[in-house]
């Protein structure tokens, strides 16, 4: 999927016949599903995040012989100006979640970690759009597949690193959803993996403060401050607590 700003123009027209440039935050579009114009799909696959381009499509790569009345006349050549804001390849992830749990268990760990990372990135995308419920669901999906039994210390390290990122995201998202008890639970799970993780300690401190458990909040925040004494967010939270 990709987030794209686009405007489509007919030849010799100054006004676009379609555009999403007036939208503050364009949604994620899936190639082949939301982007159905053949030429545009091919063009987007050649682009990188942050790149802008102008494409001219002959009818075969656009709306064909019939056009798309009343907006697009028959045999129309069209020009699209596009800018790729973000790219997210979710095909592998979507295919993985269509498998049975037994089939998922046979996948190599590296593939499972890739899928978890894609889900987490999708969660981050939704979080940035302030769609916290959707973000929480993606993070939970990522976490649900990380219960793999490792076959070596190195694999355990990789699984833990992946889990830790997801748990920190879940803790933060539950704070945004005003569910501090859940935020605390996920923060504490993160601390089981890394007891000196300043972000996890900070999230737990924030959650306890929301629940007016001031002593507990101070304990978490002071521990976080010991690890990152110059962190403004931690210091500000301690001031708030004081």
Describe this structure in words.
The mean pLDDT is 90. The chain is built from ten helices and four strands, in the order E-E-H-E-E-H-H-H-H-H-H-H-H-H. The chain has a four-stranded antiparallel sheet with strand order 2-1-4-3, with helices on one face. It folds into two domains: 86 residues, Chitinase A, domain 3 (Roll); 151 residues, Serine Threonine Protein Phosphatase 5, Tetratricopeptide repeat, CATH 1.25.40. The chain is elongated. It has 242 residues and is of the alpha+beta class.
How would you summarize the topology of this molecule?
Layout: E1 2-10, E2 18-19, H1 38-45, E3 52-57, E4 78-87, H2 91-97, H3 101-105, H4 109-128, H5 132-144, H6 153-176, H7 180-193, H8 198-210, H9 214-227, H10 232-241
Antiparallel strand pairs: 1-2, 1-4, 3-4
Helix pairs in contact: 4-5, 4-6, 5-6, 6-7, 6-8, 7-8, 8-9, 9-10
Features:
Serine Threonine Protein Phosphatase 5, Tetratricopeptide repeat; alpha+beta; Chitinase A, domain 3; elongated; single chain; 242 residues
Strand order of the largest sheet: 2-1-4-3
Terminal CA distance reads 46 Å
Query: Uncertain regions: pLDDT < 50 for 5+ in a row?
Result: none
SSE run: EEHEEHHHHHHHHH
Largest sheet: 4 strands, antiparallel
- Assign the structural class, choosing from mainly alpha, mainly beta, alpha/beta, alpha+beta, or little secondary structure: alpha+beta
Describe the global form. Answer: elongated
Q: Helical element count?
A: 10
Radius of gyration: 23 Å
CATH superfamily of the largest domain: Tetratricopeptide repeat domain
Could you give the count of β-strands? 4
Report strand %: 5-15%
The CATH C-level name of the largest domain is Mainly Alpha
Instruction: Give the % helix.
Output: 40-55%
User: What's the architecture of the largest domain, going by CATH?
Assistant: Alpha Horseshoe
Mean pLDDT: 90
Keywords: Isomerase, Repeat, Rotamase, TPR repeat
Family: Belongs to the FKBP6 family.
Pfam family, one: FKBP_C
Domain PPIase FKBP-type: 1-88
